[in-house]
Write a structure and sequence with these properties.
The chain is mainly α. The chain has a domain at 58-194: Tetracycline Repressor, domain 2 (Orthogonal Bundle), CATH 1.10.357. 68% of the residues lie in helices and 0% in strands. The protein contains ten helices and no strands. The longest helix has 25 residues, at 50-74. The mean pLDDT is 90.
Length: 203
């Protein structure tokens, strides 16, 4: 395959899949070249070195899984609709299964730590913004944002490590929508008591 046939995005998505499989050590140029069906020379058409690929992959994850999601959810006018839509998006089908838990386990690497820190700050701030929007005070919103994000990370970890014990954590299980609704209701209570229930809208 000619080097022009494989884009920079192909390499970065391949690197993200490798990260999900085996962490930073799995982001190997030769292995990714074989996976993409190209020579090693194709890599250097797009990247100076392996570290540049790793940084580009992490920035792609930040864009797709945080920046674009926040921008889309912010377009929804109703605060409860925004809250439900965010959780439906975050806990829906994963584009790359197991990527987020894998990244959380690799923060000893400086590049991973920097992006995970930035993503975590942005997500917590947006969660607090949403919770403030449904009527919680700043401190309560912050505490609920922390609890919600911890639940999110735990949900993904259950999906990865215990799919048979917690099938509802998987997006394709028949009970997944009810389990997700229960989680969201717990996070939003007592705000739900003062406002009518709002159904999520597509992001």
């Amino acid at each position: 395959m000619a080097k022009g046939k494989v884009s920079k995005d192909d390499w970065t998505m391949g690197a993200l899949r490798a990260l999900a499989r085996g962490g930073v050590a799995a982001v190997a140029v030769d292995g990714l070249a074989r996976e993409l069906g190209v020579t090693r020379g194709s890599f250097y058409w797009h990247f100076e070195n392996r570290e540049a690929l790793l940084v580009a992959a992490l920035e792609t994850w930040e864009l797709l899984a945080t920046t674009e999601v926040i921008a889309a959810v912010r377009q929804l006018e109703d605060p409860l609709v925004r809250a439900r839509a965010l959780f439906a998006e975050a806990l829906g089908s994963e584009k790359i299964a197991g990527l987020e838990p894998a990244l959380a386990a690799q923060t000893s690497h400086p590049a991973v730590a920097e992006v995970v820190d930035r993503v975590t700050r942005a997500r917590l701030a947006f969660l607090a913004e949403i919770l403030t929007g449904v009527g919680f005070g700043p401190q309560d919103a912050r505490h609920r944002a922390l609890a919600a994000y911890a639940a999110y990370l735990g949900w993904l970890e259950l999906r990865r490590t215990a799919p048979e014990l917690a099938p509802e954590a998987g997006p394709d299980d028949p009970q997944a929508p009810a389990a997700l609704d229960h989680l969201v209701d717990m996070i939003l209570a007592p705000a739900l008591h003062s406002q009518p229930r709002a159904d999520p809208q597509p992001v």
